[in-house]
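Backbones bend. To wit:
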Amino acid sequence: MSLLLIAEIQGETAPPEFGGEFAAHIGRKRNPAVRRASLTAWNLLAEGLRRLWNSRPAREGAPSGKDTLPAVRFGAHGKPEFVDCPLHFSLSHSGNLAAALISDVPCGVDVERVRPEVALRLRARCLSPEEQRRGLDFFECWTRKECIGKLNGAGMDGNPAKLDTLDARWAGRFLSETLTDSSGQSYALSALCKDAAALRAQRV
C-alpha cells in the first residue's frame, strides 16, 4: 500500500497536529517561503493519513484516538519518521510544488523545479558515467538519486555520481513524472518504495 499526494504550495496554513518533535521542527522555519512550503508538505502528509485510515477496516495502522496524528521524530541524518505508527513517509518541496509519500515500507519522494542551467552545470559531477553515456535526463536522475538517499535514510553522502539509478536494485522500480504548476513551470518528480509497489501521483 502506498499513497502519493502532490499540491501547489499554499499560503500560510495552520500546522497539522503531529506530536513529538514536529512543533520544534516547524518552529525553526524562519524563512516565510520555506515555512509555507514545509507546511504544505506536512499538511499533505496529514491528508494522506486520513485518506488511508478512512479506507482501511478499523483504521488499521492508525494511532489510538480518533483522528489523532502520530508523533514525529528525526533520525541521525534528519530523516523524519513516525514514533508509534507502522507507516513510513517521505516529503519534498521545490518551487511551487510539494509532495508527500506514505507507504507500508521505507520510501522516498523528490520533486525538483526544472532549471536547464543547473543541469548543464552539474551533469558531469552528479551523474554516473553510465547515466551520462546513455544521455539520461539530469533531473529525472537527480530526483531518483534523492529518492534512494531518502529511502535509505542517509542521503547521497556527498557523492551523487556514485549513486547509480541504473543499478539492478532500483532499475524499473521508480515512478517518474514531469509535472507543471499553474504558472507553466516544469518539475521532475520521482518516487520509490523498498518493495515494488504500484504508485500513482494524485494532485490535491
Q: What stands out?
A: The CA atoms of residues 28 and 35 lie 9 Å apart. Strands lie at 2-8, 19-20, 71-74, 80-82, 88-94, 97-103, 107-113, 175-180, 186-193, 201-203. The first strand starts at residue 2 and ends at 8.
